[in-house]
Amino acid sequence: MSKPVVVVPGLVRKDALAYLGEHVTIKQWTEKTKMPREILKEWLKEADALWSINNVTVDADLIADAPNLKVIAQASVGYDNVVIDDLTARQIPYGNTPDVLTESVAELAFTLVAAASRRVMENADFVKSGQWEQRPSNIKGKDLSRCTLGIIGLGNIGVSISRRARAFGMTVIYNNRKPRPDDKLYMVEYRDRDALYAESDVVLVVTPLTPETYHMIDKEAFKKMKKDALFVNVGRGKIVDTEALVWALNEGEIDYAALDVTDPEPLPADHPLLKTGKALVVPHIASFTDRTRRDMAMLTADNIILGVQGKPLKTCVNKEVNYKED
Ligand SMILES: NC(=O)C1=CN([C@@H]2O[C@H](COP(=O)(O)OP(=O)(O)OC[C@H]3O[C@@H](n4cnc5c(N)ncnc54)[C@H](OP(=O)(O)O)[C@@H]3O)[C@@H](O)[C@H]2O)C=CC1
Ligand SMILES: O=CC(=O)O
């Protein structure tokens, strides 16, 4: 019997691909350029599974002529490039990779908080350029132990960030659409969004990107933050209105930004955000450690292998169509 066919429309880790290849036939786009959507649609006509990647919009149109598709999986927690309802309508389970990256993402998020609060990058640059003594005296640090961290999106990653913040002596408040019944366990207190902006020295966003969170952080939000607030985003770039962020930094509505995610991505080197001189930006690396990327890729491969066999995925977003154990 021939093996199921899995389409991989870009580069993914070789070790996970080798493992996947023991179970299925892989059809991979290996060009450096993005796979044209029409070619992907053509390949999907014969496919049993798709290993999606975040620059591909996965929707009803993409899979319209793919009658054999049994599963789609991607190596990320966020699935804002995927129209889940379109897959559910076709009874196709979608696997993402929660949990395995939580600690790595929290570590990077807290690294941004700590580095930005002491302006580590700028100060290191003064040393490198021979300006140890000439560094401006207005670049002062914040004592995190005297600061309140406001986390918007206290989910898996938010909780993990809150633990790190408490270890640094920070007070932690949070906002979700509704309070968590277990929040006392984490020693964090719920606030509505406006109260969180008003009280926080550090505002950190780690929600998914949804129609509700798109541009949730806009001019009005920045106006409600403290003038010396540090703003951190590890959720998705489009949760923030980037123009409003540039405005807020230039006008002194907030003090500084530290970002793992931006809109656009990649952020061009001449982008006005970088010209503010008040932003620490890293290129979407929060889960980028060798161990974690391996775990994410292996979990994706497992979800695909299970899916093509008609078995329940390990991690499934649209659980209502996840296959049932006999
Ligand atoms: N930078 C990076 O490399 C990475 C970024 N991410 C991003 O982080 C996101 C969160 O991941 P994770 O913690 O695992 O996910 P979870 O689902 O565990 O947590 C998401 C949290 O966001 C809250 N939330 C959702 N919508 C809103 C809203 N409108 N307002 C306020 N809070 C909201 C949810 O609470 P409630 O439902 O009660 O509102 C929940 O607590 C991902 O979706 C992804 O976009 C994830 C991994 C890596
Ligand atoms: O951005 C990364 C993710 O896992 O989501």
TrEMBL record:
Location of the D-isomer specific 2-hydroxyacid dehydrogenase catalytic domain: 12-318
EC number(s) reported in the record: 1.1.1.79, 1.1.1.81
Spans through the membrane: none
Pfam families given in the database record: 2-Hacid_dh (PF00389), 2-Hacid_dh_C (PF02826)
Residues of the D-isomer specific 2-hydroxyacid dehydrogenase NAD-binding domain: 111-286
UniProt GO MF annotations: glyoxylate reductase (NADPH) activity; hydroxypyruvate reductase (NADH) activity; hydroxypyruvate reductase (NADPH) activity; NAD binding
Source organism (scientific name): Veillonella criceti
Top-rank lineage group of the source organism: Bacteria
PROSITE patterns with a match to the protein in the record: D_2_HYDROXYACID_DH_3
Catalysed transformations (reactions): glycolate + NADP(+) = glyoxylate + NADPH + H(+); (R)-glycerate + NAD(+) = 3-hydroxypyruvate + NADH + H(+); (R)-glycerate + NADP(+) = 3-hydroxypyruvate + NADPH + H(+)
UniProt name for this protein: Glyoxylate/hydroxypyruvate reductase B
Keywords: NAD, Oxidoreductase, Pyruvate
One annotated Gene Ontology cellular component of this protein: cytosol
